[in-house]
Design a protein that fits this description.
The chain is of the alpha/beta class. The chain has helices spanning 8-19, 22-25, 28-42, 51-57, 72-89, 148-165, 176-182, 189-196, 242-257, 263-268, 286-294, 298-314, 319-335, 345-359, 364-376, 380-392, 398-410, 414-427, 433-445, 449-457, 466-477, 481-494, 498-507, 513-534; strands at residues 2-3, 6-7, 97-100, 109-112, 135-138, 142-143, 172-173, 200-208, 212-221, 226-236. The strands form 3 sheets. Strands 5, 6, 7, 8, 9 and 10 form a 6-stranded mixed beta sheet that branches. Strands 1-2 form a two-stranded antiparallel ribbon.
């Protein structure tokens, strides 16, 4: 018998190949599911492949099983589709037969593999692309009190966290309905993760008495049961304020776990990146962005650009991909990196940000990219327009809030920018290094030089002159000439080109020319002091 272009024997041989892969060896349920639907299809029983049939024959459900009440088959079908995509994107990419299960059906399709050498001849057939977003599930919070109101609070808390997580395009969120349906059936976190196909599990407990409400939240890596993050929130127990308390806790949990540089993405971005450009399709390009902002070396820049260019090429509707590609272009311009095949990287970055907004007007990262690009283009009206447009969408991401705050400080809007930065840093202590720079420039502007030095040192980014520039100027203003000279010496040794471009460098991203003149003059004073000392035999600095 033939099924499409293949004999039954060829399909079965491919089935065994797939089932020998690690992802299927580690999951008996997925293996049974795939074997059942393939063998039933080959036997001519494709029309019988319904949720009820699969639940009974694969998942050992009883005759009372109701797919309308229990979504377990749909959950496993989603897991199976992702496992097949992963298999064909890695070890199975050269296999002769592609077995897939289209959404909306449980009947497998058997097709030929489209090789990269034959893409023009087969351009009408879709390429298998896998974007590995971190998958997260929110299990219902356990009520550890006798207060009846706390039961509803606990369930509402989990529901709202799940809903808010779904607004983050770089996460794949399992529906709260599915999570709630298995909560009473599964005790072990690892089993829950396998059942829901969730890499990360968010859950916790609620305790309440007449005076106090305590909520504990944990983020767990399901496959190892490792606790990655945890926090506790305590509030006075006022029944009338339950919704306000819930909103506040959800806001903090979301920004500390799922927001920019939240616990989920920090953990996920620690993946080991492979050297082959062919492997880039397996990993969500967003991780390259997080990798780059933590290590802004030129080789990481080029690999990040390649990953994101590939990502938006195969998925032109990927708004977040366009937004972060634009920000990396802007960062490359700031660092002076060469970008192959791009004539004007800052304009290209701006174009990427605008593309992201056309796709998704609520993409917060796009507003940050556009603001940063216009900052370096010295276009304050357009920079402020992007910032104000961002404010109008009622944003909720702490990381973007901090980035916008830094942009405001660079644009000379000090108090407004500092308010956003301060809120962002207190909400989530993990953020990009240049936010510390924004705070440091703010304090220098306000003549709080010791605070400026403190925040400059928190940047910890030796590839960028900011720390040493601010420290040299701040120590100079404090009349601590010895420290100023040491910083000036390090500045010149690390960045010898800074001698001739210092004022222009500062003016490139700071709109307040009074501030740039003040920093430049303070550093120049150190140079003058050193020149006067050189007449008595002290080594001359040439800043």
């Amino acid at each position: 018998m033939k099924e499409g272009n293949f004999t039954s024997g060829e399909v079965i041989k491919q089935l065994e190949r797939i089932l020998s892969a690690e992802v299927f060896i580690n999951s008996n349920a997925l293996s049974r599911f795939l074997r059942f639907v393939v063998e039933e299809t080959l036997a001519g029983n494709a029309t019988q492949l319904k949720e009820y049939t699969i639940g009974i024959n694969v998942l050992s459900k009883t005759s009372r099983f109701s797919p309308k009440v229990d979504p377990i088959v749909r959950i496993h079908a989603g897991r199976l589709r992702r496992a097949l995509y992963e298999y064909y994107a890695t070890g199975g990419k050269n296999d002769p037969v592609v077995i897939s299960i289209p959404k909306g059906s449980y009947v497998p399709v058997f097709s030929e593999w489209i090789s990269s050498d034959n893409t023009e001849q087969n351009s009408n057939q879709p390429e298998i692309i896998v974007r590995k977003k971190p998958s997260v599930a929110v299990l219902p919070f356990k009520n550890n009190s006798i207060d009846a109101e706390a039961v509803f609070f606990a369930d509402g808390l989990g529901d709202q966290i799940s809903t808010e997580l779904a607004s983050y395009p770089d996460l794949s969120v399992i529906s709260y309905y599915s999570c709630r349906s298995i909560a009473d059936k599964v005790v072990d976190i690892k089993e829950a993760g396998l059942l829901l196909d969730a890499k990360y599990i968010l859950t916790g407990t609620v305790q309440s008495d007449s005076n106090q409400l305590r909520v504990r939240v944990q983020l767990v890596l399901s496959e190892t049961r490792e606790q990655l993050w945890a926090n506790s929130y305590e509030r006075k127990n006022t029944v009338h304020d339950f919704f306000e308390i819930q909103d506040e806790i959800v806001w903090k949990v979301i920004n500390q776990t799922a927001g920019q540089f939240g616990a989920i993405l920090r953990h996920a971005s620690n993946l080991l990146y492979k050297n082959s450009i062919d492997d880039l399709k397996v990993f969500d390009a967003i991780f390259w962005y997080y990798h780059f902002v933590n290590d802004i070396k030129e080789d990481i820049y080029k690999r990040s650009i390649a990953a994101l260019q590939y990502s938006v090429k195969v998925d032109p509707g990927y708004a977040l991909g366009w937004a972060v590609l634009g920000e990396i272009y802007v960062a490359g311009f700031f660092m002076g990196y060469k970008t192959d095949n791009v004539e004007n990287v800052i304009e290209e970055g701006l174009k990427c940000g605008k593309t992201a907004l056309k796709i998704d007007p609520l993409c917060q990262h796009a507003y940050q990219t556009i603001a940063l690009a216009n900052l370096f283009l010295q276009n304050k009206p357009e920079c402020m327009k992007a910032i104000n447009d961002w404010s109008n969408i009622k944003p909720g991401a702490a990381g973007i809030m901090g980035g916008i705050g830094a942009c405001l400080i660079f644009a000379g809007e000090y108090e407004r920018g500092m308010k956003l930065l301060d809120d962002s840093v207190h909400l989530n202590p993990y953020y990009q290094w240049w936010l510390n720079g924004g705070i440091s420039f703010y304090y220098f502007k306000n003549e709080a030089y010791e605070d400026a030095i403190y925040w400059a040192e928190k940047m910890n980014m030796p590839h960028v002159p900011w720390e040493l520039l601010i420290k040299t100027a701040a120590f100079s203003e404090l009349n601590n000439i010895d420290e100023a000279k040491q910083c000036a010496t390090q500045l010149r040794q690390r960045f010898p080109y800074i001698d001739n471009i210092m004022e222009a460098y500062l003016n490139a991203f700071l709109f307040d020319k009074t501030l740039t003149k003040k920093i430049y003059t303070a550093i120049l004073n150190v140079q003058i002091y050193c020149l006067s000392e050189s007449k008595t035999g002290v080594i001359q600095l040439q800043l």
